[in-house]
Amino acid sequence: QLQLVESGGGLVQPGGSLRLSCAASGFTLDYYAIGWFRQVPGKEREGVSCISSSGGITSFADSVKGRFTIFRDNFKNTVYLQMNSLKPEDTAVYYCAATGGSSCSLGWYEYDYWGQGTQVTVSS
């Protein structure tokens, strides 16, 4: 069974950092592009970042550029989202998703497999 599991969310003060992990089981991530998305109640799911299957292409939403980085460790079958200089507006449930092929997209509709999400709360 193909499964993605996010971890690393939590409560952090403004200006703090968190590292989210997206671990795959039941399949290898080597051939999948991975995206990170976030959603708050009443709003559309937003693409945050993505990384191609090779790791050579990354993309970021304007709202997180310069603060977030994404990288993958195919040996650990895991993709990470490093979030620095967090702001209250980053508060959301964060999801990772996988799509076959090498492309990297911030469009949630491009992705086939989804994790259950992890809550990130930025508050003092």
Description:
- By secondary structure, the protein is mostly beta strands.
- The protein is built from no helices and eleven strands.
- The strands form two sheets. Strands 2, 4, 5, 6, 9, 10 and 11 form a seven-stranded mixed sheet that branches. The chain has a four-stranded antiparallel sheet with strand order 1-3-8-7, with no helix packed on it.
- Strand 7 and strand 8 form a beta hairpin.
- It is globular.
Average of per-residue pLDDT values: 95
What is the succession of H and E elements? EEEEEEEEEEE
Quaternary arrangement of the chains shown?
single chain
Helix content: under 10%
What is the terminal separation in angstroms?
40 Å
Number of strands: 11
Strand residue content? over 45%
